[in-house]
Design a protein that fits this description.
Length: 287
């Protein structure tokens, strides 16, 4: 069975954009689309706390949300197979369970809950660090139809996962791939008056980048690559590049906290501030 693109929805405007993005992704990858809405069972399962009909009302509202999302999906991409599922569970665990059977999980950057001033909702941030497999958080005011694929390249971890995902997406979309590596001089060097030679740093980065890219360039010879080596903060560089991008791709750390891959500070910052959708590239085995 072909693993689907799974998108979570709560009926919010951000979730609607995520459904649209997931529709296009499913069509691009020739995969089915599975739309999920979670209805939390507590406290509605305790009759002393709320009216007994509240749980039924919420389930009915959830089904209406799914019906509307399915209608949107069929109108946007008539050729894809669309299924829906109403899940009785808290949102985070429900989506983690779904991600284990998905090719990719798609979410809006903020839902109906919480504070509207937050740049990224708690569910999106939590899923980016806990989901089993790739997660796309759809940011921006509209679903981008064109633009570069931007990928952040670092060497603290093996970049194969993030580069492989980025090259594949760029090939599928016929888009240019922009590889961004940003670095800052260590504070201790600045404090002591030492300075690094930017040209030498850039040369070393290009050599390491070329070695990391080599297998992916061979696999995807159609992808045009642009490399940016920037002296500055990686979050700032990636978010600036995101202004002209269709997607920014970031990774996670290999080392884990409580058996969960850690979302690094750069990925965390990009998820909060990017101007376009952000993909957290992670294999199912890594999660």
């Amino acid at each position: 069975m072909t693993a689907p693109i799974v998108v979570g929805t709560d009926g919010s405007t951000c979730a609607d954009r995520a459904v649209e993005w997931a529709c296009d992704e499913a069509a691009l990858r020739d995969r089915p689309l599975h739309i999920v809405h979670a209805v939390e069972p507590a406290p509605y399962s305790y009759p002393l706390l709320v009216a007994p009909e509240m749980g039924k009302s919420l389930a009915e509202a959830g089904q209406r949300i799914l019906t509307a999302a399915e209608k949107t999906a069929n109108a946007r991409q008539a050729g894809i197979a669309v299924t829906t599922e109403l899940v009785a569970n808290t949102t985070g665990p429900a989506l983690v369970d779904q991600s284990a059977r998905a090719f990719e999980l798609v979410l809006g950057h903020r839902g109906l809950g919480g504070f509207k001033s937050l740049l990224l909702g708690s569910v999106g941030l939590w899923m980016a660090g806990h989901a089993d497999g790739p997660v796309v958080v759809v940011r921006g005011d509209a679903v981008p139809e064109a633009g570069e694929i931007v990928v952040g390249l670092g060497f603290a971890e093996d970049p194969a996962e993030v580069l492989g995902y980025a090259f594949e997406v760029a090939s599928l979309r016929g888009a240019t791939l922009r590889i961004v590596h940003a670095w800052q001089e260590p504070a201790i060097l600045v404090a002591t008056g030492y300075s690094l030679d930017f040209d030498k740093v850039a040369e070393e980065v290009r050599e390491r980048s070329a070695r990391a890219q080599a297998p992916w360039r061979e696999r995807y010879p159609d992808v045009q690559v642009i490399e940016d080596i920037v002296q500055g903060h990686p979050v700032t560089a990636l978010c600036e590049a995101s202004r002209r991008a269709a997607l920014v791709v970031v990774g996670t750390h290999d080392h884990k906290w409580f058996e969960v891959p850690r979302l690094g500070s750069v990925s965390h910052g990009v998820l909060h501030h990017a101007h376009c959708p952000v993909a957290v590239a992670r294999s199912h085995e890594q999660a």
